[in-house]
Design brief:
Elements (H helix, E strand, L loop, with lengths): L1 E5 L3 H13 L3 E5 L2 H10 L5 E5 L7 H11 L7 E6 L4 H9 L4 E4 L4 H26 L9 H15 L5 E8 L2 H8 L1 H15 L4 E7 L2 E7 L3 H16 L2 E3 L4 E3 L2 E7 L6 H17 L5 E3 L6 H15 L2
Helix pairs in contact: 2-3, 7-8, 10-11
Length: 311
């Protein structure tokens, strides 16, 4: 673990640092709790805080609370309070203030190691639960929830000053593949398409069924269309073995670029309208959304059109 250690005593910092470093933990020591809190904010690698209850500018309880506010589901921070007053009241106050655990000061080495091992087990389980909750088990891409979580973060750091484009890909005639070759072949087709949709530069997800989405930072509509066309050609150039013969997988692709006030839903609505246009024009092609497209109208119109046309 990378641990911020906060204690006004230089001697305590040295003792605890040596205990931690002996077991391979990386220690970032601080005498000033304000500096520690600022470092925790900017250093995303810090995943642990060990703090004394007795500090200079704020109480250890306040530091626990402020650090707990910085933790997120994807960035768990283990908070351990040390205090020479090892009584029930202090313990309860520490836990109520956001500490995960409490230990006497100075800490016994083996006890501290045991508490950190427990913290690592909990953090590992939390990361695995998040992975399971946000990953599509068939393809390994983000599932719908995972995609929208990442897309929201990308949109926040990109819009309104930068460019943001979305690509929606829908496998052509997927129902026919399932009906003619079986659902196992259908699953393999989805996996093959997921592999073809992976881009290092993009957030990629399976939104459901046979539909995939890519989100591209700092890409204009023409640039995103060029990338989409490359994806289309890449998929169509690789014959797919169904187990009963080879076929060519293709997909129809819609591309949209966000306007400065677009939400993620509105951006995807632009791409979705272009996707429908690609399907209506004969499938196995790329279509770009008109820049003056109104996403709200598109959602309503496309929902009716897709229901009648099918995929």
């Amino acid at each position: 673990m990378r641990i911020a250690l906060v204690d006004p005593s230089r001697t305590t910092r040295l003792i605890v640092s040596r205990i931690l470093e002996t077991r391979g933990h990386e220690v970032v020591p601080f005498a000033d709790e304000r500096e520690a809190l600022q470092q925790i904010k900017i250093d995303q690698r810090i995943d642990g805080l060990i703090t004394s209850a007795e500090l200079t500018h704020m109480s250890g309880l306040e530091l626990c609370w402020e650090t707990r506010l910085l933790a997120t589901p994807r960035r768990p921070i283990y908070v351990l309070m040390m205090s020479s007053q090892y009584d029930q009241r202090t313990l309860v106050e520490a836990l109520d203030s956001g500490a995960d655990d409490f230990i006497g000061k100075p800490p016994l080495a083996e006890e501290l190691y045991a508490r950190l091992r427990a913290a690592e087990r909990i953090a590992s389980m939390q990361r695995e639960l998040i992975r399971l909750a946000t990953t599509d088990p068939l393809t390994g891409l983000c599932n719908r929830r995972g995609f929208f979580e990442q897309a929201t973060q990308v949109r926040a750091r990109t819009i309104p000053d930068g460019h943001l484009s979305a690509i929606l890909l829908d496998i052509d005639n997927f129902k026919h593949i399932n009906d003619s070759y079986g659902h196992e072949a259908g699953d393999e087709a989805i996996r093959a398409c997921a592999m073809a949709a992976r881009l290092d530069e993009a957030v990629a997800g399976r939104l459901g069924g046979d539909e995939f989405a890519l989100l591209l930072e700092q890409r204009t509509l023409p640039e995103a269309i060029e990338i989409a066309e490359d994806l289309r050609r890449r998929l169509a150039s690789k014959p797919f073995d169904t187990g009963k013969g080879r076929i060519t997988l293709t997909w129809s692709v819609g591309v949209g670029e966000a306007k400065p006030d677009d939400t993620v839903d509105q951006l995807l609505a632009r791409a979705d309208a272009a996707l429908y246009s690609a399907k209506a024009s004969g499938r196995n092609r790329v279509a770009g959304a008109s820049p003056d497209l109104c996403p709200k109208q598109t959602i309503a119109q496309h929902g009716i059109a897709r229901a009648s046309a099918g995929t």
